[in-house]
Amino acid sequence: MPRHPPTLAIDFVDDRSLTSPAQRAWLADRACAALAALEVRGGARGEVRARIVGDGEMAEAHQRWSGVAGTTDVLTFDLAEGRSAGGEPLDVDLLLCADEARRQADERGFTVERELLLYLVHGVLHCLGHDDHDEDAFARMHAEEDRLLEAAGVGATYGVDARGAGR
Questions:
Q1: How far apart are CA 17 and CA 29, in angstroms?
Q2: What pLDDT, on the 0 to 100 scale, is given for residue 150?
Q3: What's the CA gap between 85 and 142, in Å, rounded?
């Protein structure tokens, strides 16, 4: 019986923060490439749904779901309730903040879609058991982000600045 490759569906809903179809296509393509490089038991499979929102909607969601006032870069809703870290399929909803991505991208000399890709990868890694709550875990998680983004042909993004400075 032929073995089928693992499947991973990635869907985006954009509030029109990305102004061109080329930006949306690039983000979708690079997200697929980055997540294809995941090394998880059983292969990368499942569903990732990412909604791109502005500061207002992100701040409301941040307050509602985390009890924290103000905007943030990404909120992760792991509908698999941690089982993806043990090899079960991903089932995740992400809110990605285009306004925060734009601020970070402008400050570091990257495109907004590259910053949004970082947020997507970060959210998925949380569902696979990564965290960034202490120094060692923080370093491991961001190293894995860089590995995935490099595999996708984008290059390390979190700790670098396109102009040569560190974050």
A1: 17
A2: 94
A3: 17
Range of the domain at 37: 8-151
Cα of 27 vs its chain's centroid, Å: 10
**Distance between CA atoms of residues 25 and 23, nearest Å:** 5
* CATH code for the domain of 42: 3.40.390.30
User: Does the residue 3 lie in any domain?
Assistant: no
Q: How many domains does the chain have?
A: 1
Instruction: Please write the tens of the pLDDT for every residue from 4-41.
Output: 345 778 888 876 777 788 888 899 899 989 988 887 65
Q: Alpha-carbon dihedral of residues 130, 133, 136, 141, nearest 10 degrees?
A: 30
* 99 close to 55: Cβ distance less than 8 angstroms: yes
9 contact partners, CB below 8 Å, separation of at least 6: 46, 47, 48
Mean pLDDT of the residues in the chain? 86
Within a 13 Å sphere around the CA of 84, how many CA atoms are in the beta-carbon half?
26
Tokens standing for 56? 């207002």
Gyration radius (Cα) of the chain, Å: 15
